[in-house]
Write a structure and sequence with these properties.
Number of strands: 0
Distance between the termini: 77 Å
Helix content: 55-70%
Largest sheet: none
Strand content: under 5%
Mean pLDDT: 86
Number of helices: 9
Structural class: mainly alpha
Order of helices and strands: HHHHHHHHH
Shape: elongated
């Protein structure tokens, strides 16, 4: 006998929050094996019941990124000014990437997932940089790529607290160097 489509395989079904929690755990455990069928199997529901709650894979990834990155753009402007706010924004983003690297990789692979908080982070960074430099788009891309690269590299240090702390410190030092370059363009550049 087959299950009706879109109905729970067992139990009373699941909530959107349960789906997002299970999806994030599955993604963290096995980014390559992440998909609607694997998630449905983990939750004991049919794949169609997931679509009812979260839409397609792109919308699910968007919902996950909105959840994971919620606190990144959601801070009051820094009283110290643009550079301090940029540093704080990028540090929060870097830390979120490091906690859930497979989510970042999945967003790279699914352009529809680049929305919500992910887009808000990029827009906030663009706005802050545009007040400091005419090369704001170039600097935005450099800073975001650096946060991604450094955050994803932290996967190699999982479990080694001392190495994680050292890598985070190196990220902060490199970020400070780049921000100093934005604050004083031309200073220290080759002629």
């Amino acid at each position: 006998m087959t299950r009706p489509r879109g109905r729970p395989a067992r139990g009373e079904g699941v909530t959107r929050d349960e789906i997002l929690s299970a999806a994030l755990a599955l993604l963290d455990e096995d980014g390559a094996g992440f998909g609607m069928r694997a998630l449905a199997a983990r939750l004991g529901v049919t794949p169609m019941s997931l679509y009812h709650h979260v839409g397609d894979r792109g919308k699910l990834l968007q919902a996950l990124s909105d959840h994971v990155y919620a606190a990144v753009p959601d801070h009051a402007p820094s009283p110290a000014g643009g550079l301090a706010e940029i540093r704080a924004l990028l540090t929060r983003y870097h830390d979120a990437v490091a906690r859930h690297p497979q989510l970042t990789l999945a967003i790279f692979a699914e352009p529809a997932a680049f929305a919500g908080n992910t887009r808000a982070i990029t827009e906030r960074l663009t706005l802050l940089l545009s007040a400091l430099t005419p090369d704001y788009l170039l600097w935005r891309d450099i800073l975001v790529d650096h946060a991604h690269g450094s955050g994803l590299a932290l996967c190699a240090a999982r479990g080694d607290r001392q190495q994680l702390d050292a890598m985070r410190e190196q990220y902060g030092q490199a970020l400070d160097c780049m921000l100093a370059r934005i604050a004083a363009p031309g200073k220290g550049s080759a002629s």
